[in-house]
Structure formats: structure tokens, C-alpha cells
Amino acid sequence: MSAAEKLGQGNPLLDKRLVNAFVEGMVEVIKSTGTEVKEGKPFVEPQFEAKGSIAGMIGMVAGDMRGTITISFDDSSVFHILENWLMEHHDQINDEVADAVGELTNQIYGKAKTTLNELGYGFEMAIPTVITGGGKIKSYHDGATLILPFTCDNGNFFIEITVER
Amino acid sequence: MAGGGLLEDDVDVLICSPKESFWSTVKNLLTDYNPLRKTYVNNVEKLLETQDLEKIFESEHGSEAIFNPLLAIVDAQENTQTTSEWVQSLKMSYPHVPVMVLYNSETPIDLNAVLKNGADSCYHFPFELEFFREQLLSNLDVDDEDAPPLPFSLVPIKLNELRPGTIIPFSLYLKLPSSEKILCIRKKNNRVDQKTIDKFSQSKEETAFVRRSELNAFFKYAREFSETSTVDEDYSLTEYFIEKKAKLRSLFNYFLDSGEPNFDQGRLVLNEIQNFAQSYGIHSKMENQEIKSLFTNFSGHNSSVFHDALATSVFTGLFAKICRFPENEIQSALIAGLLHNIGLSELSPHGNFDSQLNLSYQNTRAYRSYGSLGLNLIKSRKVSIPLDIGKAIEQCEERIDGSGYPFGHENGKLSKLSKVLQIAIEFNRMVQHSDQHKALLPEESVKKIFDSNNENKEFDSKTLNLIYFFFAKNFEMSAADDFLNKLVG
What we know:
The complex is a heterodimer of chains A (165) and B (489).
Chain A: H1 3-9, H2 16-32, E1 38-39, E2 43-45, E3 54-62, E4 65-73, H3 75-86, H4 95-118, E5 129-132, E6 145-152, E7 155-164
Antiparallel strand pairs in A: 1-6, 2-6, 3-4, 3-5, 4-7, 6-7
Chain B: E1 12-16, H1 20-29, E2 37-41, H2 44-48, H3 53-56, E3 71-75, H4 80-93, E4 99-103, H5 111-116, E5 121-124, H6 129-140, E6 154-157, E7 166-168, E8 172-176, E9 181-186, E10 190-192, H7 194-201, E11 208-211, H8 215-225, H9 237-256, H10 263-278, H11 288-297, H12 305-322, H13 327-339, H14 365-368, H15 370-380, H16 387-394, H17 416-431, H18 442-456, H19 461-472, H20 477-488
Parallel strand pairs in B: 1-2, 1-3, 3-4, 4-5
Antiparallel strand pairs in B: 6-11, 7-10, 8-9
Helix pairs in contact in B: 10-13, 12-13, 12-17, 13-16, 13-17, 15-16, 16-17, 17-18, 18-19, 19-20
């Protein structure tokens, strides 16, 4: 039985390998920008609500599973990461910042996808959508959201995983 | 050039810029190309007044001359739009004239936009000097087979591509730098012997030259007769480097362009760079003889920005291999070497219009900060290189005793990869010809760095010892393994 088939049986939010793949992807990508990163303790929220002020979202499709991964940043963390990564100084969210968040989301998803597909999942290519402007997006999905929090010297950022069943 | 021969009245180069400094810069650059007549245009309006050109423009020699330009060299102005305006005006007045645009870090332009507006080629100057010279020659078409060759129409070749006892379908020339004379040592369709080859190897430049117009005949000969173990069997060695440098230039152009970068393009470029670095096969298993061949084949050339990037890439990769880095880190080493000197393009061009880039800045802080400038450039073009590669590029001129640039970091702050890259850059400086020195053999260079490091302690001793041992044991990887085991033990 493939990992994707197994996914159909259990709650993917409880699959440690899936969660780890995204955590490792996040850590690796953020470190590659020259930013120190610390992982926080994961928790579950009953309702999806994008955190931070800018977020990259990618629809995940693997077998019967449909879900969304959202990588969200508060202002100070994303400005700090971009300064380290691209030597660009920003003090407000603009198209360039949005473009960069899209790229970070793409890289993180890409790394996790590679790891998970090697384990037998069948994640497909996907294009990120970037959401800005306060980002208080609610009811994008019904159901619980797994939140993986991270911190850097200048702020917080999150991976939020929701799964449609 | 119609009819050939530089002395005809119709040979003229338009030098177009509102800045007089550009006029003198290009005049200096074209010194070797005398007796080209050069004409200065300082106002774009004048380009459209084609009827009276010979009266309006002051010729270099102070006299009015028959005016029929063969080439235009245009200064990149303060922005892409103004540059395009000059290019368009030139093309309207002289549709047949090739237009070459020179730009630099202080006058960045959107290359695609300028090319679309009619420019035939654009060169980051002096970073792309070697390509500019080559294209200049091609545009002027001055290599007249029936006349003695001009100095700039000669191309150096690798002597080990000549096979004693064979008939050569091209002439071989020797340059005498002291008297600026050119001697034909072997004429086309004659036999070349060992004595002749020795004569070239004992000359100041330690090489032979062929005319640009006879290069194809040389390539064909070298592919057939060369006994050297070339890096690619489809090419002669000289041809291989010309092709590789052209390919590298097309990759570097992404970094030199001031057109809006984006992550998709950045990802494509990084992918191409990775493929380029992989093409040597250094990350996979190699025979000792193959390793030796790579060291030999990439040494003994004239130092230039692009050759240095190619050779330093290979040397860094090979050194990483000798040090038993894992495959992915060898790949990182190759990429770090390839991109290490791209920051030279960010240096101010003022006072740096010598024949080779490495003359003026060699000992200045500005020059030796090129690694850090390069990393910033790569980042600004949205190419997400891995952190270890970025660190190595940034620290490529640092030294473990803290005497390096730009930060003066000591051993503990330097990355493992940067320590290998630092040695590879020093090694490359020694094994290539430059205006300052003749090329040393790879073995001599390693020994020289090793001996010097015993006193100065600039480079990482462990890495250097391993490389020295490997060379001393005739490129035996097993010998390097023994040495590593002893270190661990």
C-alpha cells in the first residue's frame, strides 16, 4: 500500500513523516537565506486563520487527499529574511516582498514534496498564491489546522496545514 | 572589410558618447588597432545630420576625411532609454554599421531592450574585454590572408596540440613582445617538428599563435592529430575553451543585465549553472590520469576573467575531491569556483582599462572585496544559491591568519569550502600566464604555495598538506586516502 493510500485511511495531520518533511523543508530553506531559525511546538487550531501579514499558499494534492499548506510571516520576520537573503531592505509589504514569499513557499513545498514523494506519496507540482494585507483569512477551509511555529531573531513565521477530507 | 587592408580611407570607427572620458578610454583600447581612424561623436543630434558628417566631426588626425564608418562603439548612457536613443539614431543613419554598446556597473542597462533597439552586441566593460576584442575583430574583418597578420588577429593555442612530424594546414607565429614584432615560424602546409615546438615553449609567452582566419583549419588539425587527453573528444583543446567561455558568458550575462530579475529566471539560471558545473564529471569517479589531465589542460593559459572562472571551478572541484568531500559538496565547490569572480563586474571601471583586469586593483581593498560584491550581485539577481556556496564566494579572498579581505576573518569564521576555494584561486593565479608572471606547472605551483604557507600560514594547512601530498604521490587518490587516515589516526 502506497503512502498516499495510507493517507486516505488516517488523518494526515497525524502523519509524522509529512509534518517532518515540511519542518525540515522550512528550516533548510530559511537557513539557506542566511537566517537562523528555531522551531516551536506544533499545535492544532479548530479553525483556519492565516497568521502574520503575508502568506504563501499552495494546494496539496496526493491521491484522494486535498489540502492546503500556508507559509505565513509577520512583517518583521519577512523583512529580516529578505535582508539576509537578497540584500534588500523593505519596511512595507509590496509586490517584491510578495514575489519573494511566493518563491520561499515554492522552495519549501518543493523540498518537502521531494522528500515525501521518495517515501511514496504522490504530491504534484503546484503554484503558490500569495496573500497580503493583514491576512485574516478565515473559513478558507473547514476543519482543523495544524500550526508549526518558527522564530528567527526578528519575528515569527508559520506553516499551517489544513486537510479536506 | 571590402577589399581588405586597413590603410584604405573607408576604415573608420565612430565612438559615441557625451563624455570625453569615453573617447579617450576607447582610443586607448584601440591603440593596438592602428591605423584605424577613430571619430568622436558627442551629441546624438549629430548622428542624424548625415550629409555633413565629414565636416562636423573632428577626425582624430585633425583633418577632414572621407567618412564611411565600419563600426560604431557606443557608451551606455545614464539609462537604457538614452542608450537606446543613440543606438536607434546610429542605425537610422548607418544601417549597415555594427553597433557595439559598452556598459559597466555605473551605467547598467537592460540588455534585451538595447539589443531590441538595434544594438548588435553589448559588452560589460572591462569585465568582458576578451569578448569585446574578439567581436571587434570580427566586425572589422581585418585579417587579410595575403598581408602580414596584425597583433590582435592572432590567437594563442596550446602547444601540446601540435604533433611533431605532421603537416600543418595553418601558419604558426611567434610574438616578440619587446619589439612588438610578429614572426612566422612555420608557414601553412609545412611540417612542424619538435625543434619548432621547443622554440615556442622557450619564448616569453610560451605559446604559438595562429591567425584568427586559420583557426578552423587548426581546430580540424588538432582534433585529428592531438595526442593530448582532451576534456572533450569532440573538440580540440583550444576550441573547447573558446566554446566553454562563450557558454559561460551567456550564463554571466544574466547577472550583468539590469533588466528586472525574477525568481523563475533565477531558478533557470541556477539550474544551468549546476549543469555546467556537472559537465566535467568531477563529482563522479575518475581515474588518476583523468585528474592529472584536467590539471594540465586547464593550466598554462592566458589569465582572463572567464578563463579564471572556468579553471578555478575545476581546480576547486578537484581539490574538494582530493579532500574527499562528498559528491554534493564537490558540486558546490565547482559552482563556487565558477562564480567566484563575478563580483569583478561590480568594481568601478575608472582607471581599470588596462589590457587585463587584474593589473590595477591587485593589491587594493576594493579589488579584493570582489567576492562579497559577487555574492550581493547573485542575490540581487534572485538566484538562490545554497548558503555554503555563497559563503565560499564571499570569503574567497579571506586568509586563515586574518590578513584577507573583505572582513579579515580568521580561521574559525571561514567555511570549509572557502578554504579550498582560497587555495584554488591562488593556484590558478600561478598556473596561468599573466602580465606579471609566466605560468608555473601545476606541481610547481602547489609546492610554491605549500612552501610559502609554512612561513605565512595564510591557507588551511590540513587542506594544503593533502593537496601537496596528492601531487607528490603522482595523483594517486589512494595516497591521499592514506594521508587522510594518518590524520584521523
